[in-house]
Design a protein that fits this description.
Mean pLDDT: 84
Number of helices: 12
Helix content: over 70%
Strand order of the largest sheet: 1-2
Strand content: under 5%
Largest sheet: 2 strands, antiparallel
Number of strands: 2
Length: 317
């Protein structure tokens, strides 16, 4: 009888996983907590766009807390509790769910930026806090349903061994992977075209304002006036870089013959990028947004002050 859990990688890969995934886990947890706490303690950050951003931070936080550890176990170990078709999806369902919720948030942020740029005077009346909360709820429900859809049916062969390349080529698995591979790039392409349109509208507005005021507005000024939109476009770009290799991985798994070692390297590379995306957004906010950066510093200052106070109290006792 096969063991339930057995280390399936060499010690060098084990060291690699421990180091890289520890960084991703810590970065996701700490970074996204900073975003969430910044939103809570700084009232100036409670604007419509930041409602979507903080909800996205919660998604990334849960990705680091749940999806990263489960994905790590699935790659490091083999055995009946990991590699059978009946249990394999358990280790990746969180990744698909939170990835789907993230895409829904990117769609909401894109819509938010389009309204902000095309109808700036009506923006606050259209996207009220109540409507933002309703849209966020819809995003979570829709993303959760879409993320669990591929795993809603019982595998036709529950006891099929699906680790490696030998048996993981069934029709159901192929359809699931092809669907995921098609939806991700098509959605990102659609959102990218939306941002092209947003920047086009913004440029016209800035040039019209400059012409009425007889000013010469250069490219850097345009970017400064659209700082929030540029930041959200960067978030979309980073997400694309991190997730598009996964679509290539799906095609490779279905159509290209590989060895177990080659497939393991491809899968690991794609998954490191996917999970690494969960720690990138807080870095982008801190770099691009002065208010987020200052609030980060305030939080660290408070934590250091509390630590020093506790240390001093402990010493006196």
């Amino acid at each position: 009888m096969l063991p339930s859990f057995q280390l399936g990688v060499s010690k060098y890969w084990l060291i690699f996983y421990i180091f890289v995934y520890s960084v991703i886990f810590t970065g996701s947890i700490v970074g996204n907590q900073l975003v969430i706490w910044s939103f809570i303690i700084e009232s100036k950050l409670r604007r419509p766009t930041n409602f979507f951003i903080v909800s996205l931070a919660v998604t990334d936080f849960l990705t680091g807390l749940i999806a990263v550890p489960l994905g790590t176990v699935a790659r490091l170990f083999t055995g009946t509790k990991v590699c059978l078709a009946s249990v394999r999806s358990f280790y990746y369902i969180a990744t698909f769910v939170f990835g789907s919720i993230t895409i829904c948030h990117l769609l909401l942020i894109t819509i938010d930026r389009y309204i902000a740029v095309s109808q700036p005077l009506k923006y606050r009346n259209i996207l009220t806090k109540r409507r933002c909360k309703i849209l966020i709820t819809i995003a979570w429900i829709t993303g959760s349903l879409f993320g669990t859809l591929p795993y809603s049916s019982v595998p036709p062969e529950p006891n099929l061994w699906v680790c490696g390349v030998t048996n993981d080529r069934t029709a159901g698995v192929g359809i699931q992977k092809l669907t995921s591979a098609a939806i991700i790039p098509l959605t990102l392409l659609l959102l990218s075209l939306c941002y092209v349109r947003i920047f086009s509208i913004a440029r016209k507005h800035v040039e019209e304002t400059a012409r009425l005021q007889n000013l010469d507005v250069d490219a850097s000024t345009r970017l400064k006036m659209m700082q929030t939109t540029v930041t959200t476009a960067i978030i979309l770009g980073v997400f694309s870089i991190c997730w598009l290799p996964s679509t290539a991985k799906f095609f490779i798994e279905i159509y290209i013959e590989t060895t177990d070692k080659q497939l393991f390297v491809i899968q690991t590379t794609a998954e490191v990028l996917v999970y690494g995306n969960s720690m990138m957004d807080p870095i982008i906010y801190g770099y691009r947004n002065d208010l987020f950066r200052l609030t980060y510093k305030r939080i660290f200052h408070r934590l250091c002050h509390c630590f020093q106070s506790n240390t001093t109290s402990g010493t006196k006792k």
